[in-house]
Design a protein that fits this description.
Elements lengths: L13 H24 L9 E4 L4 H5 L7 H8 L4 E2 L6 E9 L6 E11 L2 E8 L4
Antiparallel strand pairs: 1-3, 2-3, 3-4, 4-5
Length: 126
Amino acid sequence: MQQTGLTSIIPPSFDTIVSMTVRLLPGLLILICAIVAFPGCVYRMDIPQGNRVDPELVAQLEIGMSRDQVTFLLGTPAVVDLYRPDQWHYIYYLKKGDDGSIEKYRMTLTFRNDLLAKIDGRLNPG
């Protein structure tokens, strides 16, 4: 007679357990090494925030320009102070993914009679 679908209720011997462990050990060690080694290979992207403006456009900025001209040239500012509506703040923040370093740039434009009167700070490295 042939018996199908029956499982043995006899526990495996110590030798069987040791041989199974020895066979699984190299694969387990490779898996552990991969888990430890690969987190350093994860790609972390750069995170830019704020106004990223081309340096050539910033160089075209001149005292006496109207608000519309500045907006056309640089785009809308990141911050317009409610208490000082004649000041526009252009801010650029970059957190680099590879080393986690942070770059911050700030440029404040001051207007008088809707014309650009003062430029403080810089928006680009250099």
